[in-house]
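User: what does the whole thing look like in 3D?
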Amino acid sequence: MSIKYAEAEPATTDATKYVGRAVDRIDGPAKTTGEARFAAEYSYPDLAYAALVHATIPRGRITAIDTAAARAVRGVIDVLTHESTPAMKPPPKPSVLDLSSMVAGTSVNYLGTDEVHWNGQPIAVVVAETPETARYAASLVRPAYQELPAATDFEAEKHHAVPQKSSLISEASANKGDAPAALAAAPYAVDLTFSTPPQSHNAIEPHASTAVWDGDRLTLHEGTQNIPWTRRHLALRFGVPEKGIRILSPYVGGGFGGKGSVWAGTLLAVLAARVTGRAVRLALTRESVYHTVGGRTASTQRVALGAEADGRLTALIHTSVSRTGRTGGSGEQITAGSRHLYAAPNIHLQQNVVQLDLLANTFMRAPGESIGTFAMESAVDELAWKLGMDPIELRMRNEPERDPLGGQEFSGRRLREAYALGAERFGWHARDPRAGAMRDGKWLVGMGVATAYHPSLQMMASVTVRLEAAGTLVVRCGLHEMGMGTATVQAQIAADEMGVPLEQVRVEYGDSDLPPGPQAGGSMQTATAAAGVLAACAKLKRTLTGLARRAPGSPLRGTRPADVQARDGGLYAGGRGLTYKELLSAAGRDHVEAEVKGSTLAFMAKFLRERRKWVKAATGAHFCEVRVDPDTMEVRVSRWLGVFDAGTIINARTAASQLRGGIVMGLGMALSEHTLIDPRNGRVVNPSLSEYHLPVHADVPHIDVEWLNEPDPNMPLGLRGIGEVGITGVAAAVANAVRHATGKRVADLPITLDKLL
Amino acid sequence: MKPFAYVKPADVEAALHAAATEPGAKFLGGGTNLVDLMREGIEQPQTVVDVTGLPFDTVEDLPDGGLRIGALVRNSALAADPRVRDRYPVLSQALLSGASGQLRNMATVGGNLLQRTRCLYFYDTTSACNKREPGSGCDALDGFNRSCAILGVSDSCIATHPSDMCVALAALDAVVEVRGTGGTRRVPVTDLHRLPGDTPEIETDLAPGELITAVELPPAPADSRYRKVRDRASYAFALVSVAAALEVSDGTVTLARLALGGIAPKPWRAREAERLLTGGPADEAAFRRAAEAELAAASVRDGNAFKTSLATATIVATLRELSQEGAVR
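Assistant: Here's the predicted 3D structure for the full assembly of 1086 residues, as structure tokens:
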């Protein structure tokens, strides 16, 4: 049996280029055959296994910890507690002067303190000869606590929220005109309160670390989205030279932001290996992931919109409360999309944040934007109902020509085209605008739209490209391959730049010995690495051209450098030229290499400079159709189309998968995902794939994705990151379709049937 | 997982002997629930008696037109059995709505009868749970109780029985065959499970060491179906489920069988609804009256109050669809 997806059209028609084609992932065969090894699959002769003991109170002190029963289990090597273990150095204070200081998931010095800061914090580690022994012995560790009062109830504590601080990258508030007055004066207005629940990371590969010390040298097999910062952080925490630490992360079994920080499991695996002198593997159980790796904040949001009868917005207000942990996390950019989406003359945005005695929140695919667009795009839909206007038409009437707050130009923005194309493809014209009017047999049918929005950022990367005598082009950069096609797309770019067949390009990645790549976060990795690969290839071409113009007998002797093209596996000017093999041979070189180095200062300068000129973002239009059972109010998504303005698409296959994946994750947010944190004690009580409801295959319809494929004029190759834009707006599109099917507005995620009965 | 002894007896006598003599013994069928609970530290048997080698893995016709189902028949096999699909669609549908394909391939009929609750606080060993730790209290009462029961509950426990199969068996008047060292006895499936009362840790009428060996189904009612309502399309426990069979003659209900899942600590045979339905009109109003009467005794908490109306709606919808199908025939 074969499953055929209608793939999007190839993004380019240039048959000589790889960029744009639906190229197979180069890591595909290794993964499908099981050859690819993940962090928990590296074996060492003296390998021992670790398991975590979690606190069972939300806040307090450990007054005693009885490890006798655990130690008595045959096969237990050691039980590490704050009483028995030399403390790591404390985590550094976050500072923009050293961006790696941001990588600590929490500020807790695990096993270096008797303090408990959340229900589930690791308080001991058992190291044993088998993983089963370690886990069993961990269940026998008996701590005693002095409990302290704890704030664990978001609903009760949200009233204590304070204004969030703006950061260099993300502003937490905005004011233009007088939004409250404009709202009060508006002939048409909606004023809605939304809430979204906490959500947890559930990558297919639970977090895992295999740590091996040799003196002060550390080898760490780790699934991470941030090799360089993790390395620096470990060097600081263990007081060893950074260059003695090697992090190997060739495959990451899904990240989504959950592997973007250093969490307890990594630190404790390294610590356990240090203390026991053994190679140690710590593969978290699913439950331990819930207790030690942050997730998405809960939120409450207000969106109020005022409009004239013709739909033109007069007031736009979006405020939010999110939460952090008292020992980590940060306020999320919930209103970030609302800064740029609609041309309103009066705007008020304010993000607020409250600290709770819970595990830190962390990045989770489009942190802030995903839940913020749920509220904003639901409210816009509700305004359309109030106005009796088509929701696409309402959006188009408020589509800004320049940024509504800063007045900058958009670096390309084609939401109008995205909606127009989507409406045609999805059959929007066939939508009966009345609520509850469309039926398919017994099912109520609803159709909804929402806008997707995610900023296009770019950081810095160091990249080396090397042409070898045999004709192989090696691209070296410590990139992170989490399944999205990282290496594949950079190979395509390098192949095009150097004019070599894709098969001759080898991308080396996932290793701290390589030139440091960007973190895989903020939808930045592909654009950042592409800029580095382009620059390095240009440098390499200059060097090779120089060689070709000088090499004895070279047909390119005397040509002008500007006339030399890299194509067909060599350098050519008009009809003359030579292959790279011939060139290296003629030049007597076994390889030629070019290197570019990323610079934090240059990155910051570029970021700040560009921010004044342009607003860069990937945008899109989601089209959702739902079916609702009129008896039970079960919601099933039956059709989906997303049309994206995401710049140049490098690989039609991996891009489609990224965008679809974002939409699937958005369906979970819309319909079922909810981390149940007991407000009485901060305990996560559904830490399993059985009770935390991710979408299953049967919940996911065929998802069509399209893209406009217009290059962004100010991004490398015109590409925009697409890791996160797919999830933004999804929950709103579902809620809006449910509103159309049932007449009911659900403003409280997830949209479960009890909210519709 | 706590270390345990493992034995795999060759015949039923040896299995019963092992269960009677080994301290802290538990029978192991497909292991889909027991092993899970052992990993969580909720079940801690000292000895696991693997009964999967016993010859109880066939489905046989009974002379009266019923079926005899061995306790070790796998859920997938039973759901796919042509006799079950043809004569007892409610059972096949219930089985296929449960768990996942992989789990159904392992899970046995006997094990499924003894499946334990999925109450979040039963699973979280740091929480108070009278079922897991008698006398410790019940954190579900004022906690996350959206999935909890509304009928047959007590102050000490509001956990549901999670099985889909059992709901169908309850509607079908199935009889469970049980063997102990003292001999064989037969228990109606509706009497197998107990309500929690003050002893939610005692979930069935089985004596220690007794082994379920078979389930017998009487001849099938006319048409039957299973409707499961849940938070996602697959791999989720029922918020509410309905197993129903209906026979209608000249617009009058001549036979009604109704059992509910997801709303009670045991598969809930809705006898009050059946009584009201039988002999009455096969119309929406009558279905609703019957459903509401059955649920009149509901005792709800904050999180699960919706189950009363959801159960009512699901009962009405299922009976409506059955009666309409009957009309087409």
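In plain terms: The longest helix of chain A spans residues 525-550. Chain A has three domains: 28-35+461-598, 37-367, 394-457+614-757.
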